[in-house]
Amino acid sequence: SSNDDKILAASAKHPIVPLPAGSLYKYGTAGFRMSSDLLEGVTFRVGLIAALRSRKLGGAAIGVMITASHNPAQDNGVKVVDPMGEMLEQEWETYSTRLVNSPSDKELLETYHALATQLKIDLKTPAKVVYGRDTRPSGHTLVAALASAFEATGTEYVDYKILTTPQLHYLTRATNTEGTPEAYGEVSEAGYYKKFADAFVHALKGRKIKGTLTVDCANGVGGPKLNEFLKYIPKDQVPFDVKVVNDDVLRPEVLNLDSGADYVKTKQRAPPHPKPEAGARCCSLDGDADRLMYYWTDAETGFFMLDGDRIATLAASFIADLARSAGIEDDLRIGVVQTAYANGASTKYIQENLRLPVVCTPTGVKHLHHAACSFDVGVYFEANGHGTVLFSNDAMATFRNKEPQSPAQKDALETLSAVGNLINQTVGDAISDMLLVEVILAHKDWSLRDWANTYSDLPNRLVRVEVGDKDLFETTDAERRLSKPQGAQGEIDALVKKYTNARSFARASGTENACRVYAEAATRAEADELAKKVAVVVENYGGGRGSAAVS
Ligand code: G16
User: Which residue minimizes the CA distance to atom 10 of ligand 1?
Assistant: First the structure.
């Protein structure tokens, strides 16, 4: 057909770079992510997948985001977003991998048709895709490859240009729910700002936010977008003093450099620039503004970090308290979802003090999101600061419709409703999460120190280990144990036994060409030593040529 000719011609313009024998492009933790010069052909092919996915779902809008988030500036990535703003259905990751790895244009076309046949997709169904990109310069070429795929397949598309990842998720859901009772918000970037600014004012309910909040934007897309967002807050009603730093998006090489949520979490220190003011309330976003870390530095404490586990416990305790005040605690199943990286002390605190159930899933928000859906209120956060709180439609309806028996109940129900609107329901969103934290601290009249005092973290260390072949490592038990290579887990177990309250695990990263090792133990020295020793085990089993870089 003429579309086939168009696909062939377009594919020839965006060729795939052949990988060394035995290697494949893989849909990883957050889509295809690698050095940007390998990505043009990959992105064109992902465009074909997005078009197929939209047709499979009767023309529902599919999202595509071009970003490599926390990775260095020269990397980029591409991931697909399903209609309600969730991550692409897992089975489709396999189809994407299959299509992307077609060796030639001709085989690409054959695989495209084979997938359409296998999945019973009528290629005449209308299709729609919306997309955006972060501030990386390589994004230009990649969105051009996407547009080419949509032109060749007769797919309607909207280029939203530069966006944070969560904004693209928002727009995908807003597009698909427009004009329905579930309408998520106005279908525009401004609609995003309006929705969350409005929810922020409602959720505060007159409480005052104290002091200045310094926000490090990792010199990524979060900077300009946060500055834009702040214009939507009615300052006369809600004074909110925010100092935006590291928001230089004009020099691409400074993206994520010595700044951002990933830097803060892995280095366990504040970004060196600008020098943090003693005791100031600070937070960091990552390169595409979907992760959040809070911290302060002062002479007495040194550096203190409040990570994703802390945000999860803060949100869960606040919502559980509100549910009690509203008299609906028996109707609302609240749960927390974590990964193996969650500090053992946070898990214990949630189970024993908050008395809430905890579920552990593999890394990747897609896994956590899915598990969180099984609760009425599902709080999910990765320790790295990526997460959100999901409210079921029933829960939101209860907040709206329950007849309050007292002014206190009315107040709690209204706050719950506003909080449900304030937290991005599609995916972890650093800006929306930050607003939530500010709201909770204002309600509780808490400083970061009060928040930190809720429990003590076990000292921990995260190490990045470069190995010859990270694919040798396979995990089981929600990534808490290695099933391969044979013998490695036994050595890790033997090491862990030698330390007090210790835990450690190793896994291959799904976004970087490396393995990660996590260790926690009763003391700082023990955690560091255990992490180092497990890193050596990983190096030894990882096919050599590696070097353990403690980060
Ligand atoms: C992505 C994923 C996160 C994951 C992180 C690290 O974050 O969205 O869920 O925790 O990668 O994954 P891995 O350990 O497999 O490399 P981001 O912020 O880079 O998109």
Answer: 364
Q: What is the pLDDT of residues 210-235, one digit of tens each?
A: 999 999 999 999 999 999 999 999 99
Nearest CA to ligand 1 atom 4: 364
Q: What are the residue ranges spanned by the domains of the chain?
A: 2-162, 191-302, 308-452, 460-549
Could you tell me the distance, in angstroms and rounded to a whole number, from the CA of residue 105 to the centre of ligand 1?
A: 31
pLDDT in tens, 105-161: 999 999 999 999 999 999 999 999 999 999 999 999 999 999 999 999 999 999 999
CB neighbour list of residue 251: distance below 8 Å, 6 or more residues apart:
219
Find the residues whose C-beta lies inside 6 A of ligand 1: 29-30, 69-70, 286, 290-291, 363-365, 382, 384, 386, 509-512, 516
Tell me if the domain spanning 191-302 has CATH number 3.40.120.10. Answer: yes
Active-site hit among 11, 36, 54, 69: 69
Instruction: Say which CATH class 308-452 falls into.
Output: alpha beta
pLDDT per residue as tens digits for the range 516-525: 999 999 999 9
Give the integer Cα–Cα distance in Å for 53 and 45: 12
Angle made by CA atoms 445, 448, 455, in degrees to the nearest 5: 105
CATH match for 2-162 among 3.30.450.40, 3.30.1330.10, 3.40.120.10, 3.40.50.720 = 3.40.120.10
Expressed in angstroms and rounded, the spacing between residue 28 Cα and the centre of ligand 1 is: 9
Could you please state the CATH topology (level 3) that the domain comprising 460-549 is classified under.
TATA-Binding Protein (3.30.310)
